[in-house]
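Q: Structure tokens for this one, please.
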Amino acid sequence: MAHDHLRAFLAELPLLSETIEAELAAAPAASANSDDVRKAHDAAMRRVVEFLKTERLPYAQIHYPEVSNPCPECGVTLAGAYWELSHPMGRGVSLPHLGFHLFVRHGRLEFEETLTNLAGTTVGQETIHLDVAGLARALDGISLPADAARDLAELAVAPRSQA
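A: Here is the predicted structure, written as tokens:
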């Protein structure tokens, strides 16, 4: 498939929530006191953020985990409305989680999103394209593997119909 190296790189980005959970699991156990637990969580968050800043590592976050979407290609249910690529130096891009999954797992650069109103009535459809420019901005300054950087450069200059 096209852009395999970039897709593999993005698929391996750590989720911030999982990184913090691992840091908490490795820390000495806090007492059951809610204030101690909060302090332990805050300390773990600071250690993780400091590590990401020092190493200049990108990470991902899932927003609105209560929202779920089935993948039209493989049927897996994705928890979360948005996948956000963040960089500790202030760069980031937020993508529809389904669009990110379709690109990383299936090589698709666009998908059809069904639009519904608050009553749950379908009101239309919209074609959503992968935000390649946003990805490029968010990955600027990050040490990418050469093949992934080449894939990103190719995507950035290709017309939508050819990407």
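A few notes: The first helix runs from residue 4 to 11. DSSP finds six helices and seven strands in the chain.
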